[in-house]
C-alpha cells in the first residue's frame, strides 16, 4: 500500500487512524460543508441524527484547527480544511483498496449436490467432511441459487451467494507408539482399539514402521503417508478430525512444522503395553 502524506499532524492512514483519533464526525461534518449549502448547524444535526449542541461542538473543534469557518452566513471549509478533506479521503481510498484486495468476495461457487436440485432453486450450503454441499432450502447461514439442475452427487453451480459457511476447526490427535515394541503383536491390537474409537476423519502415519502398524491395525482405511503436516493443517481447517500415528522417537521431528505454524491444541495419546 503506498504511503499518503500526513497533513496537519492529526491524520495517519485509513480506518485505523480515524478510529483512533475519533475523527469520523469531523470528516463527515467537513464533507457536508464542502458539498452542500449549510446555512445553520441544524441542517447537519438533522442529517447526522445528533443534537445541535453536538454539531456545534464539532464545528468549534474544527474552527480551532482552522479547518472550517462561518463566512457570509454559510459554514464553509477553509483552504486548509479542503486540503485535509482530500488527504483524509485519499488515505481512506488507499486503505480500503488494500483491505479489499485481501478480502476475497465470492459471488458464485461450485458445490456437491446433497439431493436433487432443480434449476433456479434456492439452496443452503454446508461443509461436510471437508466438501461444500448444497441442498434445496432457504434457511441457513449460507445460501444461494442453483444456476442449473443437478442430480444428487453431481457438481452444481451456485450463484447469488449470501452469508458465510460456518467452519468448525477439526481436532488433531497424535498417537505415539513405543519403538522397541513394534514387533510385539499386542501393539497392533492396542493400536486397533485406539483407531476404532475414531473411525472417521483423516488418518496418517509418519514413517515406515508406523505405516506398517496402521495398515495391520486398520486394514482398508486410507492412510496418508506424505506431506502429513500440510494435509493435517488443511483437513482440520475444513472441519475434519485428524489422527497421526508416529513412533515416540520420531514425534519431535513430526511436530516441528506444527510448532512453526503457530500454537494449536494437539491431543496426545500414548499407546503402551502392559508390563
Q: Any overview of this molecule?
A:
The chain has 275 residues and is an alpha/beta fold. It folds into 3 domains: 14-101, Winged helix-like DNA-binding domain superfamily/Winged helix DNA-binding domain (Arc Repressor Mutant, subunit A), CATH 1.10.10.10; 108-163, no CATH class; 172-270, Cobalt-precorrin-4 Transmethylase, domain 1. It has 9 helices and 11 strands. It has helices at 14-21, 24-35, 41-48, 52-64, 79-101, 185-196, 208-217, 228-237, 251-260, and strands at 68-71, 74-77, 108-113, 122-128, 131-136, 142-146, 155-163, 172-177, 202-206, 242-247, 267-270. The strands form 3 sheets. The chain has a 5-stranded mixed barrel with strand order 3-5-4-6-7. A 4-stranded parallel β-sheet has the order 9-10-8-11, with helices on both faces. A two-stranded antiparallel sheet has the order 1-2. A hairpin with a 2-residue loop joins strand 1 (68-71) and strand 2. It is elongated, with a radius of gyration of 30 Å. Residues 1-12 have low confidence and may be disordered.
In short:
With 275 residues, the protein is of the alpha/beta class. It has helices spanning 14-21, 24-35, 41-48, 52-64, 79-101, 185-196, 208-217, 228-237, 251-260, and strands at 68-71, 74-77, 108-113, 122-128, 131-136, 142-146, 155-163, 172-177, 202-206, 242-247, 267-270.
Give the helix/strand layout:
Layout: H1 14-21, H2 24-35, H3 41-48, H4 52-64, E1 68-71, E2 74-77, H5 79-101, E3 108-113, E4 122-128, E5 131-136, E6 142-146, E7 155-163, E8 172-177, H6 185-196, E9 202-206, H7 208-217, H8 228-237, E10 242-247, H9 251-260, E11 267-270
Parallel strand pairs: 3-5, 8-10, 8-11, 9-10
Antiparallel strand pairs: 1-2, 3-7, 4-5, 4-6, 6-7
Amino acid at each position: 500500500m503506498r504511503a499518503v502524506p500526513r497533513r496537519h499532524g492529526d491524520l495517519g492512514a485509513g480506518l485505523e487512524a480515524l478510529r483512533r483519533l475519533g475523527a469520523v464526525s469531523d470528516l463527515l461534518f467537513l464533507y457536508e460543508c464542502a458539498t452542500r449549502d449549510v446555512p445553520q448547524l441544524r441542517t447537519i444535526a438533522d442529517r447526522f441524527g445528533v443534537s445541535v449542541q453536538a454539531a456545534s461542538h464539532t464545528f468549534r473543534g474544527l474552527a480551532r484547527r482552522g479547518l472550517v469557518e462561518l463566512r457570509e452566513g454559510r459554514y464553509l471549509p477553509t483552504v486548509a480544511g479542503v486540503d485535509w478533506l482530500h488527504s483524509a479521503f485519499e488515505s481512506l481510498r488507499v486503505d480500503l483498496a488494500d483491505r479489499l484486495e485481501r478480502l476475497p468476495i465470492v459471488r458464485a461457487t461450485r458445490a456437491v449436490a446433497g439431493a436433487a436440485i432443480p434449476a433456479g432453486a434456492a439452496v443452503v450450503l454446508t461443509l461436510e467432511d471437508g466438501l461444500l454441499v448444497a441442498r434445496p432450502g432457504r434457511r441457513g447461514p449460507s445460501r444461494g441459487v442453483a444456476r442449473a439442475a443437478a442430480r444428487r452427487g453431481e457438481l452444481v453451480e451456485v450463484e447469488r451467494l449470501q452469508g458465510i459457511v460456518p467452519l468448525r476447526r477439526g481436532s488433531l490427535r497424535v498417537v505415539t507408539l513405543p519403538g522397541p515394541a513394534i514387533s510385539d503383536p499386542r501393539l497392533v491390537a492396542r493400536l486397533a482399539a485406539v483407531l476404532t474409537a475414531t473411525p472417521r476423519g483423516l488418518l496418517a502415519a509418519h514413517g515406515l514402521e508406523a505405516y506398517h502398524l496402521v495398515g495391520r491395525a486398520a486394514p482398508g482405511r486410507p492412510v496418508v503417508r506424505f506431506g502429513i503436516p500440510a494435509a493435517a493443517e488443511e483437513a482440520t481447517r475444513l472441519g475434519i478430525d485428524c489422527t497421526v500415528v508416529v513412533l515416540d522417537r520420531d514425534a519431535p521431528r513430526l511436530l516441528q512444522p506444527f510448532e512453526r505454524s503457530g500454537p494449536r491444541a494437539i491431543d496426545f495419546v500414548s499407546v503402551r503395553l502392559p508390563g
